Amino acid sequence: MGISAKDVKALRDRSGAGMMECKRALEESQGDMNRAVDILRERGMAAAAKKAGRSTTEGLVESYIHAGGRIGVLLEINCETDFVANTQDFKNLAHDIALHVAASQPLYINRSDVPATRIAREKDVLRQQALNEKKPEPIIEKMVQGRIDKFYKEICLMEQPFVKNPDVSVEDLIKENIARLGEQIQIRRFARFERGEDVAVENT
After folding, report:
1. Cβ(178)–Cβ(40) under 8 Å?
2. Helix (H, G, I), strand (E, B) or coil at 35
3. Span 180-199, pLDDT tens digits
4. pTM summary value
5. Among residues 129, 67, 123, which one has the least CA distance to residue 99?
6. What is the pLDDT of residues 4-36, one digit of tens each?
7. Is 185 in contact with 93 (CB distance < 8 Å)?
8. Residue 158 burial (CB < 10 Å; 0-12/13-18/19+)?
9. Residue 70: strand, helix, or coil
10. What's the CATH number of domain 58-110+156-203, 3.20.20.80, 3.40.50.10490, 3.30.479.20, 3.40.630.40?
11. Architecture of domain 115-154 in this structure
């Protein structure tokens, strides 16, 4: 089937990928825009994986203040060079993630940051809930694990659906930008402040 230049441009605007990559993805997906986005994301993730482990000593400290001054976020996001750190794409990414932290209230960056004691306590609660629901013993552990996975997605920044596009996670968003900008990108830490709360949420 013929792929129009308009569709290629729409996919490029949506994904940030190059024109030829977008055209090939649309041809492979037979014009299905959502599938083409997935294809580009999959390729972007593969490109991002190759850059994992590279040193990230440059970047930005981004601030975001919600309208009215009720919520504020400080976010450190790192890349490999000051050249990329000063690009508009990287600045936009930093802003979008700071905005996301303000809106979605993550407590940790990754699963590995969540204390084991918190997960153990959560599993105990979920197991008791399943018992109270009279669930058969053989499926309780599967239910608990499924609910723990959901719990991680609620509290871990990288696993949360991106607030401006819930079809992708924050991790997917970062990997797409790694592929686009050609450098490793990492969220180093963040702090979220909300007016009236005694303690700020910090992840360092």
Report:
1. no
2. helix
3. 888 889 999 999 999 887 65
4. 0.71
5. 67
6. 888 888 877 676 666 777 888 888 888 888 888
7. yes
8. buried
9. coil
10. 3.30.479.20
11. Orthogonal Bundle (1.10)
